[in-house]
Amino acid sequence: MLNQKKFVVTPKTESSVTVTVRIEKESHDRLEELVLKSGRSRNELINKAIKFALDNLEFDDGKEE
């Protein structure tokens, strides 16, 4: 009983979600070209682009102060 090993399973935590979006054909074509050139996955490039856009976004609600 001294060397009894345990196989411990913990609940999986989701760090991502699945979404479906429609993009313009030109954007898709440019993305696919970058996928081929970079060797990175479509998913990785889309995530990087979204993160960059959100981190650098300036929202203008159209209301004047």
List keywords for this structure.
flat; mainly alpha; 2 helices; 65 residues; single chain
Can you tell me about this structure?
One of its GO terms (biological process) is regulation of DNA-templated transcription. It comes from Hominilimicola fabiformis. With 65 residues, the chain is mainly α. The protein has a domain at 25-55. The protein has two helices and no strands. It is flat, with a radius of gyration of 21 Å. The protein starts with 24 loop residues before the first helix and ends in a 10-residue tail after the last helix.
Briefly say what this structure is.
43% of the residues lie in helices and 0% in strands. It is mainly α.
**Secondary-structure element order, N to C:** HH
- Strand content range: under 5%
Structural class: mainly alpha
Strand tally is 0
Q: Any idea what the radius of gyration is?
A: 21 Å
Low-pLDDT sequence parts: none
Q: Helical content, roughly? A: 40-55%
Give the N-terminus to C-terminus distance in angstroms.
73 Å
Overall mean pLDDT score? 92
User: How many helices?
Assistant: 2
Largest sheet: none
Query: In one word, what is the shape?
Result: flat
